[in-house]
Amino acid sequence: MSNRVVVTGMGVVSPIGNDLDTVWNSLCAGKSGIDAITAFDVSDYPCKIAGEVRDLEFTRYVDLKEAKRTDRFVLFAIAAAHMAVEHSGIDLSSIDTDRVGTVIGTGIGGLSTLEAECAKLIKRGPSRVSPFLIPMMIPDMASGMVSMKLGLRGPNYSLVSACASGAHAVGDSMLAMRAGMMDVAICGGTEATITPLGIAGFCSAKTLSTRNDEPWKASSPFDKKRDGFVMGEGAGILVLETLEHALDRGATIYGEVVGYGATGDAHHITAPSPGGEGAQRAMRMALKSAELSPERIGYINAHGTSTPLNDKYESAAIAKVFGDHTDNLAISSTKSMTGHLLGASGGFEIIATTLAIRNGIIPPTINYEDPDPECPLNYTPNEAVEKRVTYAMSNSFGFGGHNAALIIKKYESSQNDG
After folding, report:
1. Would residue 340 show up in a list of annotated catalytic residues for this protein?
2. What are 126-137's pLDDT values in tens digits?
3. Cα separation of 239 and 84, whole Å?
């Protein structure tokens, strides 16, 4: 396989921590980041809980003036990208940045900016709308700003496919690198939609949990009592490199991206196709691209949103694709701890999957108390387990019928490298 693609850096901003070690320790401990919403008054909202990012100092990455005129979703991406580059140890001043791409997905973009400026328009007229409205709001500005901050001049674009955005960004980056378009990619997803309009919209769609009295239990994927997802926010950004580029600079390699599948349901604006038919095809496509039989996968980081239909149909899709191998397959949903990071979830979860392979530990699905007969698989309930895994898959599905599956391989150096 030409241009093998490896993971050499990871950066995270999330409800369970804003650095890699804290996030991994939280995942292994089954620590929830869900609590009462503090960003605005939720007295009139059916859902009053979310996974908010806390204690992140944006001025570590941008000055105060710039932070004030930059949307939160962009700031998350900038912070996570800086962390990923630092984690990778790559010296951007010593490489050809024409060969470094920036591909960052988001589901919605600058919603908080749009809300604030719309209020100004209504109350004070068009002359009071900020000249920064458009560049603060548009979804591509996360990738644009990261490329500017880091001086990256390779392919630079955003992907928008709802909750599959981050996964598509990683998968497309891998394809571009295999095609010879870039040697390094800063890629993943970012999202910041815990806003009055964002929560109201999802409440009206009746997709959010209303278990407000016990927020830490509200995100309960595959559990019979699940009543909707919990909104989260944050970013998950990776540094991908061609294997040759990584070896040439003596990089630490954390995993190898070996498979990618992307399909469309062509079914419904919000509901997944019955039986997870589109998800099945995405997983099969990823397996085919990785040249793997289903039996080679040891772990799946499930989309696992805690909604009635997604969890039922994803379980059915996994059972259909993996057959009898599901008896030996570990599955978990890290959304049980973080909530649903929407467009950032694919980036965050492929990082969690990479760490699971590298460390030989499967993070749990917490709040799994009442098994659902329609979700009959092994979801690693409530406690992390030790398991050596060579290949793992991460699933991401989004409104609009977007499906993505990524496969990560445990990296072990050998004489065949390069």
Report:
1. yes
2. 999 999 999 999
3. 6
Residue type, 375: C
Dist CA 224 CA 308 (whole Å) = 8
Mean pLDDT (whole number) for 88-96: 97
Q: Please give the Cα distance from 140 to 77 (Å, whole number).
A: 11
- DSSP structure string for 146-186: HHHHHT--S-EE---BTBTHHHHHHHHHHHHHHTTS-SEEE
- How many residues can be counted in the chain? 418
Residue 163 annotated to the active site: yes
Q: Token digits for 16? A: 């369970």
256 within domain boundaries: no
pLDDT, position 415: 42
Out of 163, 187, 203, 375, the active site residue is: 163
Q: Are residues 272 and 232 in the same domain?
A: no
DSSP state, residue 39:
S
How would you class 186 by CB atoms within 10 Å of its CB: exposed for 0-12, middle for 13-18, buried for 19 or more?
buried
- Report the CATH number that the domain containing residue 368 is assigned in CATH: 3.40.47.10
Q: What is the pLDDT of residue 22?
A: 98
> Which of these three, 248, 277, 305, is where a domain ends?
248
Tokens 């009053």 belong to 48
Count of structural domains within the chain: 2
Helices (H), 307-411: 308-322, 335-338, 345-359
In a domain, 344, yes or no: yes
Of residues 168, 340, 375, 402, which has the active-site annotation?
340
pTM of the model: 0.96
Given the residues 82, 168, 303, 402, select the one marked as catalytic. Answer: 303
Query: 413 falls in which pLDDT band (50, 70, 90)?
Result: confident
pLDDT tens-digit readout, 23-68: 999 999 999 999 999 999 999 999 999 999 999 999 999 999 999 9
The answer to whether 317 touches 277, Cβ cutoff 8 Å, is yes
Q: Which of 204, 226, 248 is the last residue of a domain?
A: 248
Residue 415 lies in a domain: no
Answer whether residue 418 shows pLDDT above 80: no
Average pLDDT, the chain: 96
Please tell me the distance from the alpha carbon of residue 296 to that of residue 322, in angstroms, as a whole number.
10
DSSP structure class, residue 232: B
Instruction: Return all residues near 358 (Cβ < 8 A) that are at least 6 apart.
Output: 254, 255, 410
Q: How far apart are CA 336 and CA 393, in angstroms?
A: 18
